[in-house]
From TrEMBL:
<dbReference type="GO" id="GO:0009159">
    <property type="term" value="P:deoxyribonucleoside monophosphate catabolic process"/>
</dbReference>
<protein>
    <recommendedName>
        <fullName>Putative 2'-deoxynucleoside 5'-phosphate N-hydrolase 1</fullName>
        <ecNumber>3.2.2.-</ecNumber>
    </recommendedName>
</protein>
<feature type="binding site" description="in other chain">
    <location>
        <position position="80"/>
    </location>
    <ligand>
        <name>substrate</name>
    </ligand>
</feature>
<dbReference type="Pfam" id="PF05014">
    <property type="entry name" value="Nuc_deoxyrib_tr"/>
</dbReference>
<feature type="binding site" description="in other chain">
    <location>
        <position position="19"/>
    </location>
    <ligand>
        <name>substrate</name>
    </ligand>
</feature>
<comment type="function">
    <text>Catalyzes the cleavage of the N-glycosidic bond of deoxyribonucleoside 5'-monophosphates to yield deoxyribose 5-phosphate and a purine or pyrimidine base.</text>
</comment>
<dbReference type="GO" id="GO:0070694">
    <property type="term" value="F:5-hydroxymethyl-dUMP N-hydrolase activity"/>
</dbReference>
<dbReference type="InterPro" id="IPR028607">
    <property type="entry name" value="DNPH1"/>
</dbReference>
<comment type="subunit">
    <text>Monomer and homodimer.</text>
</comment>
<keyword id="KW-0378">Hydrolase</keyword>
<comment type="similarity">
    <text>Belongs to the 2'-deoxynucleoside 5'-phosphate N-hydrolase 1 family.</text>
</comment>
<keyword id="KW-0326">Glycosidase</keyword>
<feature type="binding site">
    <location>
        <begin position="104"/>
        <end position="106"/>
    </location>
    <ligand>
        <name>substrate</name>
    </ligand>
</feature>
<dbReference type="InterPro" id="IPR051239">
    <property type="entry name" value="2'-dNMP_N-hydrolase"/>
</dbReference>
<dbReference type="GO" id="GO:0016740">
    <property type="term" value="F:transferase activity"/>
</dbReference>
<dbReference type="GO" id="GO:0009116">
    <property type="term" value="P:nucleoside metabolic process"/>
</dbReference>
<keyword id="KW-0808">Transferase</keyword>
Length: 139
């Protein structure tokens, strides 16, 4: 199984630790976690915006599912989620920290059956949600 892990890189990085935990946990489960924050896939040379876009779309195209950290604002993560849901039609788990008062209405109001939105309070509950989602959608 291949999972694209989405999280803010240039946007609000308040929850970067949680995003990194998602990547590490997916890898610990023996599942490929595609993300530029995964040291296995880090480029040794800086990429242009176009190269990053092309790479990320290719990664989503080759993924069976997506797990996204959506606690902080990120246009890129929103784009990636929409692409996964409406173009690739793969399941997406959108996770947010329960301390966040509101996440984007474009996520919380979306009725696409492939979207699962869950809150977490700590690393343990985050891992629990990720594991349940991946078990449900395992290929």
């Amino acid at each position: 199984m291949i999972v694209y892990c989405a999280g803010p890189i240039r946007g609000d990085q308040t929850y970067l630790k949680s995003y990194l935990e998602i990547i590490q946990y997916v890898e610990n489960l023996g599942i490929t976690a595609l993300s530029e924050m995964n040291s296995k896939f880090t480029s040794s040379i800086p990429l242009t915006d176009k190269q990053i876009y092309t790479r990320d779309v290719k990664w989503i195209d080759g993924s069976d599912a997506m797990v996204a950290e959506v606690s902080g604002a990120s246009l890129g993560v929103g784009f990636e989620i929409a692409y996964a849901l409406f173009v690739k039609k793969i399941p997406v788990l959108a996770l947010y920290n329960e301390s966040v008062q509101k996440i984007s209405s474009m996520i919380s109001g979306c009725t696409n059956p492939n979207l699962t939105v869950k809150s977490y309070k700590d690393d343990d509950s985050l891992r629990k949600e990720v594991k349940a989602f991946l078990l449900k959608h395992k290929k």
